[in-house]
Amino acid sequence: MATILIVEDEEEMQELLQMALKRAGHEVVACLNGVEALYLATYHQPDLIVLDLMMPLASGDAVLGFIRSTDAIKDIPVLIVSAHPNGARLAHQLEADGFLPKPLAMQDLTAQVEALLQAAAKA
User: Fold this and answer.
1) Per the confidence metrics, is the pTM higher than 0.90?
2) Running along the chain, 123 residues long, what does each successive block of 10 average in pLDDT?
3) Where are the domains of the chain?
């Protein structure tokens, strides 16, 4: 069982993500904005972060930049989920570990999460 931090400002989407990942057997920590995400990532040091790009207080790209520049959490895999029209390109530029476009199928989410967790375990 992995601990996964979900950073998603849309409450309905956050609940769907939480349910899918809990059903897959993971422990989930969640928040609604980028500022809280920075605290939770540092405090919990999750095995994976599911991160929206467009959020209040601190955008997903700012959060990812902080994560990658902080020694204690820089190696945590980050999966970006976003409805941003250039989300895939931004995820690549930001050096995220994965990207899924919204709306997303929960089976795609769980498959991508499992793949990223397995890759991190081998690293």
Assistant:
1) yes
2) 95 96 98 92 96 82 90 95 89 92 94 96 84
3) 6-43+63-77
